[in-house]
Amino acid sequence: MQTFSRPTSPSERTGRVRRRLLLVVSVVSAIALIGGYVYSQRDDDTLEIITRRPIVGEFVNDIVERGEVESSSNIELRCEVSSAQGVRILEIVDEGTPVNVGDVLVQLDDSSIRKDLTTQEIAVNTAQAAYSKAKNDFDAAEIARKEYEEGTFVQDEQKLESELFVAQENSRRAENFFNHSRKLAVKGYITDTQLESDRFAVAKYKKDLDAAETKLMVIRTYTKPKTLKKHDSDINTARANVAAEEAKLAIETEKLDSLKSQLEKCVIKAPSAGQVVYNNVDRWRQDDFYIRKGGLVRERQAIIKLPDVTKMQVKAKVGEARVDRVKPGMSAVVITEAIRDVELKGKVSTVSAYASGENWFNPNVKEYDAVIVVENPPATLKPGMSAQVKIRVETLADVVQIPVQTVVERDGKHYCILRDRQGKLAARELLIGSTNDKFIVVKDGVGPEDEVVMNPRAHLARVGLKDAEDSSETKPKAEEPPTAGPAAPQVAS
């Protein structure tokens, strides 16, 4: 006999799935509760305790910063060509090329200068011709004055004096003849008409004498001064014209000399031996005035530096929080990216009193320039190399030191955890001193024979120190110590 099972309804299938899910959730919850119970019952003795002894020895505190190698003595070769729009670089030696005295380093575009030079040469020739003409006119005016005063006037004066002499003689003779005629007329030898004719001759020659004397007086009193003044005026005018043309010639000649000088400055030569370094401060900027072949340079813009490789230094950026600890004269160690296996000795030369404005990308970060002079720089040290500088700001001899991570701070006090010979742990308050990235100087609280727990954070509850979260809930945060003196240690919380 064949049997058939009853079909399962949708509501029955849904209930079956729900019961299975509830069973799985119950099992998972039970496992979690059992695990939590087991973990809560775990004894702290099972945690690993890592200890080490304090060290006694020299403590050094170095400030490590990044910087760039440069020369303290650089010969800058600048563009001295005047141009409102800039002048283009036609040829330039490759950066890093060693050069000798007199080697051509940069060839600037001189096409416009040569064109202006040709035009200016024409202007100078024109001014030279005008000056020569004005000079000749001046010389001619001076000669004309001398010619009149010593030649023409003398001739006219002598001619008039001759006329006066003749008039005087004629007048004297007429007077004598008239007197003789009067005697003859009395005796009846001549007629009255003849006597009257002789009297008229006396009057005529008298008039001629007066006219000759007047002419001589006029030429001496009026004509000569008037003519000399006219010549003097011509001379002064010619002299002023000469000065004007001379000034024009000087200006045009100065322009010509300037253009010739500009043409010479289009070729920049090495004044001393050295290695070529482009003066690209912001090397990532690809603007029109970037130093490269075909690029533009402004007037007075530095194109190339020839550094003295025997005088090298590193310009490092020191953060605002640590700049007060860096002083001139402090010793330093310089390690470059290119010469990692060599530590170069140096000394802090200067520390800027004002923050550098070069960090425009993040203006809220204040950095100060510190210059470290490298002692006896090797030949392999080149300008532009990236360098790491370790400035020795503090050195203490024979002091007790423990690792930074072994110290915790609670309520403004510093503690470490010690393990005694029986393996028990106890908190010990410390009087700390200077610190660096690795160690803290302990003035009081631990000795060389103590065992300091390296992972105190895991054992705070065992020694009665609250965790940082618990402490912050019950007590206010301690005030920060003053920033003067060594920086506060970075301790575990």
SSE blueprint:
Elements (H helix, E strand, L loop, with lengths): L9 H31 L10 E2 L2 E17 L2 E5 L8 E6 L5 E2 L4 E5 L2 H77 L4 H74 L1 E3 L4 E2 L1 E2 L17 E2 L4 E6 L4 E8 L11 E6 L7 E8 L15 E8 L11 E18 L4 E3 L2 E7 L5 E11 L3 E6 L7 E2 L14 H7 L19
Antiparallel strand pairs: 1-21, 2-12, 2-16, 3-11, 4-6, 4-10, 5-8, 6-7, 9-11, 12-15, 13-14, 13-16, 14-15, 16-20, 17-18, 18-19, 19-20
Describe this structure in words.
This protein is an alpha+beta fold. It has helices spanning 10-40, 111-187, 192-265, 468-474; strands spanning 51-52, 55-71, 74-78, 87-92, 98-99, 104-108, 267-269, 274-275, 277-278, 296-297, 302-307, 312-319, 331-336, 344-351, 367-374, 386-403, 408-410, 413-419, 425-435, 439-444, 452-453. The strands form 5 sheets. Strands 2-12-15-14-13-16 form a 6-stranded antiparallel beta barrel. Strands 7-6-4-10 form a 4-stranded antiparallel beta sheet. The chain has a 3-stranded antiparallel beta sheet with strand order 3-11-9, with no helix packed on it. Strand 18 and strand 19 form a beta hairpin. The relative contact order is 0.16.
